[in-house]
Amino acid sequence: MDPIEKHDKLTQEADSLFNRLNQATQKLFKPQQSDFANAYVDQHRKDLESGAECQGLKVGDKPNDKFWSAVGSIEAIFGRNRNKVDDIGELDITKRELRCYDTDKDIYNIEWLYDNRAKYHAKKIWGNPKEGIHFLGEWYPGAVFKGIWEGPVSDFKAAPLFFKDLRGISLQQVAQLQLDPEEYLRKQKEQEQQAQATQQIRPTIPMYYWYEPNGVEHGPLNFAQLKQAYTSAGINKQTLVWRKGIKGDDPNHPQAIYLFDLPEFNQFLPE
């Protein structure tokens, strides 16, 4: 046989052998859905439908029909209003517990997430029952918020003024005050009105101004400073002065009067 033909034949046989070996290897190591995995998925589905997954849980012993999340998803739905949470991946509570959670017992203090009056859209909730549940998203009027607010004040539609100073602080402590946001705001408004009224009746200290002959203004000065300016020869009896509540006749300074015409200064001037 010609050496070239012999080489080509050997090459073809080698390629054929390699292909058969490669096919056998792929078949041998091809991932297969195990019977165990199929059985687990089927059993999980049956447990969900029957409520058996809640057996033995301390948070609740039956499905609450207030929580929904697809297997393997970090998205979730809470409550009758179907409030959406985009990310529960870092929430230290299992989906099983959330599906079985008894909101009457409320051992984790998360009933506010299920509240039928609640309306919200959370980008993310995370944390644990012991340290508190952090909330990032939008919360609307209807139910009391008891988590840890992590978003901007503008996203808290219920009562932003009530919570503006409590960002990053657990509002469970606020709930202990037994004040709802509307009541708190009403009391805050009353306090502000009282403070304004007190400010209005508080006596004010008169402030004075005096003018050089060329019109240069000096001040404001209190009464003691005005007397000091007089005794130090900075001003005299003919100096024009002004304070709130007086009116003079000088055409250049119609609001000013001469120092000797200032009533409270007359007692200080020598005869």
Describe this protein's structure:
By secondary structure, this protein is an alpha+beta fold. The protein folds into two domains: 48-186, no CATH class; 208-266, GYF domain (Dna Ligase, domain 1, 2-Layer Sandwich), CATH 3.30.1490. Helices cover 35% and strands 16% of the residues. The strands form two sheets. Strands 1-2-3-4-5-6 form a six-stranded mixed beta sheet, with no helix packed on it. A hairpin with a 5-residue loop joins β7 and β8.
Q: What integer is the average pLDDT?
A: 75
Tally of discrete structural domains: 2
How many strand units? 10
Structural class: alpha+beta
**Biggest β-sheet strands, sense, barrel:** 6 strands, mixed
Contiguous runs where pLDDT drops below 50 for at least 5 residues = 159-178
Strand content: 15-25%
Q: Tell me the series of helices and strands, N- to C-terminal.
A: HHEEEHHEEEHHHEEHEEH
Number of helices: 9
Q: What does the overall shape look like?
A: elongated
- Please give the share of residues in helix: 25-40%
Strand order of the largest sheet: 1-2-3-4-5-6
Q: What is the C-alpha radius of gyration, as a whole number of Å?
A: 41 Å
Distance between the termini: 148 Å
List key phrases describing it:
single chain; 271 residues; alpha+beta; Dna Ligase, domain 1; 2 domains; 10 strands
Question: Can you summarize this structure?
Answer:
With 271 residues, the chain is of the alpha+beta class.
